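Before we proceed, please read the two lines closing this message. Report back on whether the structure tokens fit the sequence:
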Amino acid sequence: MDGVILVTGGAGFIGSHVVDLLLERGDRVRVVDALLPAAHSERPGYIDPAAEWLEGDLRDAAVAERAVDGVAAVCHQAAMVGLGVDLGDLPDYVGHNDFATAQLLRALAARGFAGRFVLGSSMVVYGEGRYACREHGVVAAGARAPADLDAGRFEPPCPRCGRPLDPRTVPEDAQLDPRSVYAATKLAQEHLCSAFARATGVPVTALRYHNVYGPRMPRDTPYAGVASIFRSAFAAGRAPRVFEDGGQRRDFVHVRDVARANVRALTAPEPVAGAFNIASGTARSVLELALALAAACGAPAAAAPLVTGEWRAGDVRHIVASPRLAAERLGFRAQEGFAAGMAEFAAAPLRGSASMSL
């Protein structure tokens, strides 16, 4: 691609892999990252020096203006992630995810940006996944009552008859129902970018990542996902705690596949606007993930995954994507095998934060 490609959050888990693939293609890349202490102890050593580096916070209008100077395309990965269950964190989530995005879009509009814009979004915008009742067809899942969860009844009920529902794959046109602070800010990012696209004509591609894992994943931080939490437990010789009955279904997708999806959206012959699920296309339970990782780590019997029956407010039961639209319109299909990915992940170093002794 002619011109510079800006990767925001380019020092992070997903952004750094996007940077690597773009540089391998011979593209010119500019990285901007705030290096938040919750995610980084320092500028990571894996950042390729071939990329132009700009350390700064996009909430600062001056940083946003410097970041977009002369760019031909934008890959927006910068975000504060995690459930956001503490309402005291609301201003930080809105600031880093939505206000920073607004500053970035304002700076692009001011410069007459006419390239492509790719947003790293998330499957959390869906809330619960798609379900069907044997009597009433596809329905929105009813709320899981605390009494049912305490009793080990984890499947969401039909809101009309109360019977357990059958999980289905979620298409991009499913009802959106963000159920956490983080989810609400990711959906707001999508809406801000859609408004920007309507006003400017810039094609915006929103990639809704499912459960991403792989090298450079953060450990034991607010940014950690379930795979890194389990991996950290095995490394410490502890049994990872699997909530509910372990039957929660997710789609675990390798970070290199996610990076490939971003590069595809940035460089396809014609821009492909819209929202797309970025997933492996295979449903696996959380317990299945824990057992696969235990085998890959060579965990002793004493560290076997422990199914606790505990539950957390705000957790969803099943969220598994349909990858069809991304394959048809974006030309993206996941390539990384799960067993090989788990073996690699078991041996790969995880990234710590500034609050940890490394």
Q: What stands out?
A: DSSP finds ten helices and 16 strands in the chain. The chain has a mean pLDDT of 92. The longest helix spans residues 90-110.
